[in-house]
Write a structure and sequence with these properties.
The chain has 375 residues and is of the alpha/beta class. The chain contains twelve helices and 16 strands. Helix content is 37%, strand content 21%.
Length: 375
């Protein structure tokens, strides 16, 4: 075990991603047969949130299992959790404890995978291009699909052919040794717009069904970014509740996969008690770019919430307002232990040049992004 841990630490250091200075968590897995509804879920979360040492809670109504991520394990930690559930008439019939190397239920290996990425479309990317990205040190791709192509609002179901194509593109990236973050592109379809309470019911259905279709793919390397659908995202006052509903739908369908959410815009409030969630933000260049990243990082540290910069901006060497460069931004994020993704291959300022199937990552772009030198 010690040998494996040393190997992983070496991997993280080699990726240039600073591991957050958090102690190793403990994972408590509890069987609670009486779990049956959303009220039960809320009751369990309310019971465990104030318990000393609890970092995140995952309640699965289908399996009737509660997973609790603690600062540290031991007999005392287990007793505190079991007693808190008993007060709410939730009897534990089975219990186990295991060491967990992660942050709020997100394994460190998955955070390391997010350290360097590129946003692509959902259409097939030639294997040679995927290989070129992997050879340059890119570790994941964000595959942005069109919701209206994937989901049939009239039939309230997935479009079989489109989902098969998306699954094939995902598998191709995984086969190339890359991680994948699935993300819905912006959509103005009526069914994708929030209701008066901020919920996006059809979007919840789409993500739940899509996660169920994708659940067989490696949970260690596939994530679902359910932060909303671009312009159709709920207003800030409703966003937390809407995002929670999205997460829970995905969690029931694909319980082992990590979910990516937007970080709160105002940087206030806790990150909740949901486990296995990474919080995303965008780097907006300008005079306050560094301050913005610092505020997000401070919020993440306070809430012990894993962070991810989902959009690093264009790969122009300089921003005219404030002198921030891509190189400086990457180093700033790296110092804070935050991973990032750049624009796609088909943009003029993307990370690679050349036509489809023959793209290469240029030396200047490798240098800006801190990637491996060209062979």
């Amino acid at each position: 075990m010690r040998h494996l841990m040393l190997m992983f630490v070496a991997l993280v250091e080699g990726l240039g991603l600073a591991a957050p200075a958090f102690a190793q968590e403990a994972l408590l897995t509890l069987k609670v047969p009486t779990l049956s509804c959303e009220g039960c879920r809320s009751s369990v979360e309310a019971a465990l949130q104030p318990v000393k040492g609890v970092r995140a809670v995952d309640v699965n109504l289908t399996t009737k299992v509660v997973r609790v991520y603690m600062d540290e394990g031991g007999r005392g930690a287990m007793r505190r959790v079991v007693d808190a559930l008993a007060v709410h008439d939730k009897k534990v019939t089975e219990r186990t404890e295991a060491a967990f190397d992660g942050v709020r239920g997100v394994p460190r290996q998955r955070l390391a995978m997010l350290s360097r990425g590129v946003t692509l479309g959902a259409e097939p990317t030639p294997a040679a291009d995927l290989s070129a990205l992997r050879g340059a040190g890119i570790l994941h791709v964000r595959l942005a699909f069109e919701p209206a192509k994937v989901w049939g609002a009239e039939s309230r179901g997935l479009r079989t052919g489109e989902v098969a194509a998306l699954k094939s593109a995902t598998a191709a990236a995984l086969d190339a040794g890359l991680g994948v973050v699935l993300v819905a592109a912006a959509a103005d379809a009526p069914w994708a717009r929030p209701d008066d309470q901020g919920f996006v019911i059809e979007v919840e259905r789409m993500w739940a069904e899509l996660a169920r279709e994708m659940a067989s793919l490696d949970p260690a390397r596939l994530m679902f970014e359910v932060a909303g659908i671009g312009a159709a995202a709920p207003e800030e006052e409703h966003r937390a509740a809407a995002q929670r509903a999205l997460v829970l739908g995905v969690r029931e369908a694909a319980p082992e996969h990590t979910v990516v959410l937007w970080a709160p815009a105002d940087r206030r409030g806790g990150a909740g008690v949901l486990a296995n969630v990474v919080y995303a933000f965008e780097w907006e260049f300008g005079k306050t770019a560094g301050d913005g990243a610092a505020k997000v990082a401070a919020w993440g540290k306070e809430q012990r919430a894993p962070l991810y910069c989902r959009a690093l901006g264009t790969l122009a060497p300089w921003d005219q307002a404030g002198g921030w460069t891509i190189e400086k931004a990457v180093k700033d994020l790296q110092t804070r232990g935050i991973g990032w993704a750049t624009p796609g291959l088909d943009t003029p300022l993307g990370p690679a040049s050349g036509g489809a199937g023959a793209r290469r990552v240029e030396p200047a772009q490798r240098a800006m992004l801190g990637l491996t030198p060209a062979p």
